[in-house]
Amino acid sequence: EALAAGRTLGQLPQDAEVSFREALTLNPQDREARLGLARALRLEGQGEAAWKEALQTWSASLRHEDWRVPDLLEVGRSALAWTAERVNAGGGVPAAASTGVQALESAAKAGEAAAWLPLYDLYAWQNLFEAAADAAARGLSSGLAGDEIYGRLRGLGSHERNLQIGTLERVREARPEDPRLAWYLGEALFFQGQETRRAMDVLKSAEVLDRAEEAFTLAQSLEPSFAGSCEEWRHLLRVQRAWLYRDDGRLAEAAEAVAAALEAAPERLEAAPDPDSLRLAVDAVAADLFRSGRVADAAAFLRRICAAHDANGDWMNNLGFFLRE
After folding, report:
1. DSSP 248
2. Is the dihedral of CA 83, 87, 134, 234 positive or negative?
3. Tens digits of per-residue pLDDT, 220-251?
4. In this model, does residue 214 exceed pLDDT 80?
5. Is 312 helix (H, G, I), strand (E, B) or coil?
6. Minimal CA–CA distance to 235: which of 271, 270, 275, 272?
7. Taking Cα atoms as reference points, which of 268, 141, 26, 4 lies closest to residue 149?
8. How do residues 46-105 score in pLDDT, each as one tens digit?
9. Which of 50, 69, 140, 274 has a CA positioned 20 to 30 A from the CA of residue 296?
10. Which residues contact 47 (CB under 8 A, 6 or more apart)?
11. pTM of the predicted structure, to 2 decimals
């Protein structure tokens, strides 16, 4: 009865803890009760206590090959909870992490979709980012890992961009018709293009931005409902190319790119001249043309800009000034 109560109260961790403890007083070897207690403690935020319960039943078993997948998952999740708790507290990675990986790898091998996310996280908490990326690639290639894995790879890209993109490219070989994959690859390539532009690697940036556009075009062709999002990214790509030309001193190409981006989507003009924005690009290119003595070109540029968007008083005033020069 206590074990049944623990199952029923699975969403009420404190009550479930009491029931599972009662069940264990009757049969301390009951694996389901022990792992049920681990789950209750984990959901209460007691990572170390949860792991002690999971470890007890794991260590008591000589063979783990015949374990039920839900039991493997709980061992892995308890190991993850304790690993995160300890690392957050400034301690080292506990031995629980390797045991948890073993359990989750077994669950993933058995085809359990829910194993991939905690497996990724457990590798990442150990700073084993290549192993985490490999887990993500295997999970996504199998079609079992959920969208949360894409979110994890997005976070990975903030400090391991090449690894993120390499992982997505690997998955694309297995799932070339997946529109979500194409979309996330396009996003990653956009940021790499932006980063390489800021590093003044013009050729690399241009190549990566082209690949990003190809990825978004593919994503939209595979899933028409992505059209709005992909068009927003293509707009951002046009703006990035304009900045790339400007950074490279190619003012005529920069002016053409800025004007074309505004003409294609005047409604996407930002409210403020933030870094890398189209609004700031207009100001920067106009100023560059004027400072370089190309007043007629500056006037022609602003004439196109004001024709596409006539609600900016500063641009109108500058156009009038250039025309008087």
Report:
1. T
2. positive
3. 999 999 999 999 999 999 999 999 999 999 99
4. yes
5. coil
6. 270
7. 141
8. 999 999 999 999 999 888 988 999 999 999 999 999 999 999 999 999 999 999 999 999
9. 274
10. 78, 81, 82, 83, 84, 85, 86
11. 0.89
